[in-house]
Amino acid sequence: EIGEAIQEHLPNLERLANLSSIYGRIDRQIKLYERQLVADKNLAKRSKVDLTDAVTDFENALNKVREAYAGAKADIGGGQVEEGFNRLESEVFEALEEVGEYHQAIQQIGRLASTMTQIARAVTQGERDLARVRKGDKTEAQAIIAEAKSKLEELKAAAAVKPIDPEAVFGLLEEMEYIRDRFADAMGALRGE
Question: Each residue of 7-34: b (16+ CB within 10 Å) or e?
Fold first, then answer.
């Protein structure tokens, strides 16, 4: 009977032996996200783009992780080892990954104003480059430039919406990359490359 009891509790004993390193890893990750949250709040104050909702979502997600972590620690400390570890896996580890995504999105959106300026410069430079081409049919390249201008205006409008819709903005940025690649191909064809 004692052997069966040990066999039954062996997986939990192994987990408990690693508990301090698990807690340490989670504590470090939460502290990292707390520092990133402070940085993101400062970025939101300086940014021309409204990041209020994104920062609030980040903070709420981090608070949710903290609560789940405290609950899991309480479960484990209270003898409900299996429930505590299940909670760590389902509510803490997965949520920690999502919290990191909030920070990355805020950083990208925070750089949106400078990204839009770079895109506008690239469109202007593309127009200059196209004007220098003397041979060949420039119709396709001109159409791509017109499309780029249109998408840039859509991007500016999407960035001005309060609250900002990150999916719409990132979708437009991806479209701009595709347009840039098409323009480069069209210019290469005009230059005989």
Answer: eeeeeeeebeeeeeebeeebeebbeebe
